[in-house]
Design a protein that fits this description.
This protein is an alpha+beta fold. About 30% of the residues lie in helices and about 20% in strands. The chain has 11 helices and 19 strands. Strands 9, 12, 15, 16, 17, 18 and 19 form a 7-stranded mixed sheet that branches. Helix 6 packs across helix 7 and helix 6 packs across helix 8. The longest helix is centred in the middle third of the chain and has 18 residues. It starts with 5 loop residues before the first helix and ends with a helix. The N terminus is likely disordered.
Length: about 450
């Protein structure tokens, strides 16, 4: 057939003219439906993060609503934060493949937007106002009828008051009617599910061990007391203890890089940067935003980052990329009054530092006993990668930097002589340690004689 029908020109292909004449209406209607489908855009669940493959639909617009270009029309809650799904085109939501509370996988179809349908020019029509009915004319007030006045009747004489009768107390019966015996079941939200899964995975994967130390906070407390007002005037943010611990941990990681490394299969990945994960309280729970390159930041820059993430956490606006990729974590249970704890490592990190409450305790200073503000420090680490020697020295280095903040300001670590002495003491094994102690006592006695 050499002639082409009107539909052939629209489709830009050779179509049998006999078929067009036989079923013109049905064939044409079917093809128009196919063309209209091609003008609709399928929105898929976007890539949330490297380690996140699913999310729970927290909110979504209804079918039939119109969305604009780059307009968020749904929110997915992941194990880290909430992610908005934006419309790639402007149009009408003609179909939704998910509903609120449903878990969706990355890459699956999420919604269909028809770009051929646009909202009405005047927007949604305003609801018609009902005509106000005219109020009926008020009826004339009827005249008030007055009762005929009569002579006042004399009051009867009051009877003498009777004594009140006190009822006898009833015997007390055992009853649970005033106590609640109800049981409530609340679905576990997606954030708590992901946190539970990650914590259990951490316990099952890591050979977790915790070491402790005690830190004297006197010097840091005095420095904060003396410089807090000047620091606030210059930098516009208050001076807290957290910036000192972040700085001390970053400096200690330079000295002991295994704390910042991670095991990946049969390889050890060493990272030359320090991305610090800090826990922040939020209305939905605890979030862990990441401060990047802490090794290059000063006290003021760290404090500004802490204030920035704290404000975003309260508003629920922390982005997903702001809580991923930490290499070391600090948790502050002391803000809630905890004296001692064993923090759990966040995957894929290898260590976490736990801070606790500051309490005045009797401490030996020289030959005297003084009341000093003391804090317990806890370091949980992956014993597959980090040796006990490195973990102990790492925590001890943080303790020394906090007890003498001048070292942090001057970028001075523990002296080489002190470090060698610490290493020599640690290298002494348990069976031979009594011999060294006995030899040291013998030398002291010989020196006195």
């Amino acid at each position: 057939v050499s002639t082409q029908s009107t539909w052939d020109l629209e489709k830009k292909g050779m179509i049998n003219s006999f078929l067009m004449k036989a079923v013109p209406f049905a064939y044409r209607n079917c093809m128009f439906q196919r063309i209209s489908r091609t003008l609709a855009t399928v929105v898929k669940v976007p890539n949330l993060a490297e380690s996140i493959t699913e999310g729970e639909v927290k909110s979504i617009k209804n079918e039939g609503e119109f969305v604009g270009l780059d307009m968020p029309f749904a929110v997915l809650e992941t194990g880290k934060a909430a992610v908005e799904i934006k419309a790639p085109i402007a149009g009408k939501l003609v179909k939704l493949h998910a509903k609120v509370g449903q878990t969706v996988l990355v890459g699956n179809d999420f919604a269909v937007i028809d770009e051929t349908q646009a909202p009405p020019a005047g927007g949604a029509p305003a609801p018609k106002e009902k005509p106000v009915e005219e109020k009926a004319a008020p009826k004339p007030a009827e005249p008030i009828k007055t009762a005929p006045t009569s002579a006042p009747t004399p009051k009867p004489a009051e009877a003498p008051a009777k004594k009140p009768v006190i009822p006898e107390p009833e015997p007390v019966k055992a009853s649970f009617a005033k106590f609640s015996r109800e049981v409530r079941r609340i679905p576990l939200n997606f954030l708590r599910q992901a946190a539970s899964k990650g914590l259990k995975e951490s316990q099952n994967t890591y050979a977790m061990l915790t070491t402790f130390n005690e830190c004297d906070m006197s010097e840091l407390t005095n420095m904060r007391k003396d410089l807090s007002e000047d620091f606030l005037k210059k930098h516009g943010t208050p001076l807290t203890f957290m910036s000192a611990f972040v700085k001390a941990a970053a400096m200690s990681i330079r000295k002991y890089p295994a704390i910042n490394a991670v095991i990946d299969g049969k390889e050890i990945v060493y990272r030359d940067f320090v991305d610090m994960s800090l826990e922040v309280s939020a209305p939905k729970g605890i979030l862990v935003p990441v401060i990047r390159n802490c090794e290059s930041l000063n006290f003021a820059e760290i404090e500004k980052a802490i204030v920035y993430f704290g404000a975003k956490a309260k508003e629920g606006k922390i982005a997903l990329e702001e809580i991923l990729g930490g290499t070391f974590a600090i948790t502050n249970n002391g803000a809630f009054g905890s004296m001692l704890s064993t923090p759990i490592i966040n995957t894929p990190q290898s260590a976490v530092l736990g801070l606790h409450s500051i309490k005045n305790k009797p401490t030996v200073v020289g030959n005297k006993i003084e009341a000093r503000p003391m804090m317990f420090l806890a370091l949980s680490y992956d014993h597959r990668l980090v040796d006990g020697r490195e973990a102990v020295l790492f925590l001890k280095n943080i303790k020394e930097l906090i007890e003498d903040p001048r070292r942090m300001l001057m970028e001075i670590q523990t002296s080489q002589k002190q470090q060698q002495m610490n290493l020599s003491l640690i290298h002494i094994s348990e069976p031979t340690r009594p011999l060294y102690i006995s030899y040291a006592v013998f030398c002291l006695k010989k020196k006195k004689t």
